[in-house]
Give the backbone structure.
Amino acid sequence: MPATMGEWVQGWIGGRELLVSLVVSWRGRVELCVPEAGDILNPCGEKSLRAFGKAREIFAGNTSGAALGTFPEGSAINVINPLPSAKGLATSTMDIAGTFAACAAHAGTALSDERLFSLCASIEPSDGIMFDGLALVDHIKGELIERLPEPPPMTLVAVIPRRTLDTNDYRHDVSALEALRGCSRNHELAYDILKRGLAAGDAALIASAATLSAEIQQNVRPKEEWGALMEARRLTGAIGIAAAHSGTASGLLYEPTNKFGAELAEKWLADVLRAKETRVTIKRTSVCGGGFFSNMTETPHS
């Protein structure tokens, strides 16, 4: 499963809260296995365990032939996700979606991206990382609203703070959600810019949509790194700012040809934020489209 660095756009669009995930090239996976004595599995969270329980109920016995749908006694999930949680990187969706996809693969069940998204949203509001290309989605109800093309190549310098913000905690901030609802006209504008940029393959236009959506969010739920990002953008030629709307991460977007600018931003942000005693991790990645891959194998992953 792919990760995100927040969203291209998130807000009130067409009368309800929707988002387009900003998918990046970071990856994680979930294995369905039967551990033997001495095997050590990575710990998984409560949400993944809920997904595992639900997946066994849905997919057990749902097979196209042999009894693949029967889950072996002692079966467990092994979550291999190198990213920190509660930052806005879609780690919960990666783990939950990976769990459902692994169980469906074991059961021999073809799982569409729309059904996988719906299953994920039955556990918690989810990111649209499983859709090929990009997608405008209702992350709360688990509905696909509109499919969108994959973005052109861009580099992203991500700033990931130590502090966290869980999706459910964000959903309980009623005053912030109401304030954002009042910004619907600008959310609609940001989405229109994004669609035009994707249709034209225009990285600068797409990045401007991300910046507008991030600015709206900044006015309601400020990120302390915002000033440094604005200055780094000016100094290094970034084409836009990206934000995790229900998380703490943020970042700068670059044309892939501006390798020097991205490298300079990494160093400059590290120096400036360290001087302010802001504890962050700064990582470079590339934007991409979503999608997922699942398979059956009797050979353990290395």
